[in-house]
Design goal:
The protein has 672 residues and is α/β, with parallel strands linked by helices. The chain is 32% helix and 16% strand. The chain is built from 18 helices and 21 strands. Helix 6 runs parallel beside helix 8, helix 13 runs parallel beside helix 15 and helix 17 runs parallel beside helix 18. About 10% of the residues have low confidence.
């Protein structure tokens, strides 16, 4: 305190460290407290440092810290004339990855005091503090103490109005320059405040008090100290990362029903694979087997599998398998989504939760992307369920990161692929184009809203593509894929349909990246894109479009996917590497897998992300298919061979020859 002014200095070494290591901005989220009123209020204008942002109709403001290069701490000073000084200020801090925190659309990292409380700081002069102490010595009860006391004194105790938390209207002298009060708004605010604060529903006394029902268990966020401890542990784990290999990495996809195997048998087979030169195995971690009850995770079997791989000295690549097993090519067993998810879906209406076709067939293989944030299962949306699953995985397996686990594939659709379930085996046969999966209630609602708000075409709200059947000829004159897909309506629909898929991929990969990626534990994360090679040589690219890959009308579906993957530094995992053009390049197949793989590889290369491969169909005894993989291998960072069988490690196995040649293929370097 000096010259009738009061200065409050706030500094944080923790926030300074965040700014030094991650950049962005550190922000003071603050307000002031007046007397006994426990609510936040806007600070007076004279107290605001330069650059402070008043938040419209909010009781708090945002002021930005500056990094002190000498001390390495984030610092801010607030100065106010003592006649304008509030009694106390309350604040919390947050860090944003953006320089301009007010326009940041990403996640913010919030920091509170111990026990998740606000920070508090006395601002008033010493003389005021003495006056407050004198009032307290007289035994004056005020604020919350008076309200609680009234409950215990009985019904005759005078009623005290509860503060509503509505910010008081700021007087003109405290308005930010250029900000004007609207008379209509002022009148409305005063009316609302008057009605709420004088309502009998907002009074306290013994008769109106409800019996205490016990505390609800809440999920508390981590304190600053806990966050720092977690970040230090992540940093130690990231330091173990070793990605300096010179040659392509080879993995083998394990059987879908691996959970039925004995661990001794599994370890013996892993050793055989290592002995012939295989680097690791890929394994589905089934959501339906792990989370049998909401937020109760049983990782015991998969933890033993990962520990087994560590003992053998090979890697394991877990797949976060949020889909159902059974219903796709090669599915040898049935593993449903968690039973409680199916039960809740039945209550909400299956066509509100799962993808649905135009004939009303509901596909429960994977939760519809339109339900990502629209439906809740025991209080959680699908995105929150996927996030909690991956968070639990990270907590359980972190000690094996960069020991046995360096990469995680994230499932984002049927068969773990980022696509719509447009060709389910119960309805489809090769080479049918499949059909659009946009007839569940939330997808139809999203399309109608898009027509109204974006396209301004209200007449299209109820109009969705008519593709005749899953196996119709896309070249028929009345097919959507023949002409309508190239019309104004067709182009608009395909953009929306494909953008919805991209948005789903963004939501899932954002969570995976934050929990497991380079800034967390330093793992590689990947997403799988389906190699839909049939009808590729047609003008409409009908198979790809039905699956959500808008690859016609001069639109490059794989470039769009690769750009989205790049946002999260995800690897681009593509299938059908074993297939060659020529066998089915004629009607009615119009297949061209080599051109398709080249387009996908070019997209990944241009986006500067790792390109990885898989074979779509088993080819254990097919050297021509293995040879085709070897020809494409120079473009791949890693390859996963589908799928394990005893024949792979036999003495006369073609796979041994394949491993020998693949081990000599140099790993491609990413362009700088």
């Amino acid at each position: 305190r000096a010259d009738s002014m009061i200065t409050v200095s706030i500094s944080s070494g923790f926030m300074g460290r965040r700014l030094r290591e991650q950049g962005g901005s550190a922000v003071l989220h603050w307000g002031v407290q007046m007397g006994d009123d426990e609510d936040w209020h806007r600070p007076p204008k004279t107290m605001l440092p330069p650059g402070t942002v008043y938040r419209f109709q909010r009781a708090s403001v945002h002021s930005q810290f500056k990094l002190n290069p000498e001390t390495g701490r984030a610092e801010i000073e607030l100065t106010v004339p003592q006649d304008k000084a509030p009694e106390k200020m309350r604040f919390i801090l947050f860090h944003s990855e953006a320089e301009d925190a007010e326009h940041d659309q990403g996640a913010r990292m919030w920091f509170k005091n111990v026990n998740q409380a606000d920070f508090e700081q006395i601002v008033c002069p010493v003389e005021w503090a003495h006056e407050i102490a004198a009032q307290a010595n007289k035994g004056k009860k005020s604020g919350l103490l008076q309200r609680v006391t009234s409950v215990f004194l009985g019904e005759n105790e005078e009623q005290v109005a509860v503060k509503t938390g509505i910010p008081g209207r700021q007087g003109s002298e405290d308005m930010v320059e250029g900000q004007k009060e609207d008379d209509a708004n002022v009148h409305t605010e005063d009316q609302v405040r008057k009605e709420v604060e004088h309502s009998n529903h907002w009074q306290w006394n013994a008769s109106s008090a409800k019996k205490f029902q016990g505390h609800h268990k809440l999920t508390r966020s981590l304190s600053a100290e806990q966050l720092l401890e977690k970040e230090d542990k992540m940093s130690l784990i990231r330091a173990k990362r070793n990605d300096k290999r010179k040659y392509i990495k080879l993995s083998v996809m394990m059987p879908l029903d691996l959970h039925k195997w004995r661990l001794e048998s599994l370890e013996r087979r892993m050793r055989r694979l290592k002995d012939i030169g295989v680097h690791g195995v890929m394994c589905d971690f089934w959501w339906g087997l792990v989370e049998v009850q909401p937020k109760v995770y049983d990782w015991s079997f998969y933890k033993k599998v990962a520990e087994c791989a560590a003992r053998v000295g090979i890697e394991i690549e877990p797949v976060m398998s949020f889909h159902k097993c059974g219903g796709n090519v090669g599915d040898s067993c049935l593993i449903n989504l968690p039973p409680w998810v199916l039960e809740e879906a039945k209550k909400m209406g299956r066509d509100n939760v799962f993808y649905t076709d135009k004939w009303g067939h509901v596909n429960d293989e994977y939760i519809s992307l339109a339900a990502d944030t629209a439906c809740k299962f025991h209080g959680r949306t699908p995105i929150e369920m996927y996030t909690d699953f991956m968070s639990s995985f990270a907590s359980e397996f972190q000690d094996l990161f960069h020991v046995a686990i360096s990469k995680v594939q994230v499932g984002m659709g049927p068969a773990g692929e980022l696509r719509y379930p447009s060709f389910p085996l119960v309805k489809w046969s090769y080479p049918g184009p499949g059909t659009f999966q946009c007839f569940d209630q939330n997808m139809k609602s999203n399309w109608a809203k898009y027509c109204r708000d974006v396209l301004h075409k209200k007449e299209w709200e109820g109009r969705l593509p008519d593709t005749k059947s899953y196996n119709s000829d896309c070249n028929e004159h009345d097919s959507f894929f023949k002409k309508e897909i190239h019309s104004e309506y067709g182009r608009a629909f395909m953009k929306w349909y494909s953008d919805e898929l991209l948005g789903h991929g963004e939501r899932v990969l954002k969570s995976a990246s934050a929990l497991l990626g380079k800034n967390a534990y330093g793992l590689d994360i990947s997403g799988k894109v389906a190699g839909l090679h049939w009808l590729y040589k047609t003008n409409s690219h009908a198979t790809e479009c039905a699956a959500g890959y808008y690859n016609t009308n001069e639109n490059d579906a794989y470039a769009n996917l690769a750009k989205m993957f790049k946002t999260f530094d995800a690897c681009f995992d593509f299938t059908c590497m074993e297939m060659s053009t020529g066998k089915d390049d004629c009607p009615p197949y119009y297949s061209d897998p080599e051109a398709l793989v080249k387009q996908a590889n070019t997209a990944a290369k241009n986006a500067n992300i790792k390109f990885c491969g898989e074979n779509a169909l088993p080819c254990t005894d097919d050297w021509d298919s293995m040879d085709m993989i070897l020809k494409k291998a120079k473009e791949m960072d890693s390859f996963c061979f589908l799928r394990y069988s005893e024949a792979l490690t036999n003495d006369d196995s073609l796979f041994k020859k394949f491993v020998h040649y693949l081990s000599k293929v140099p790993r491609p370097s990413l362009p700088q």
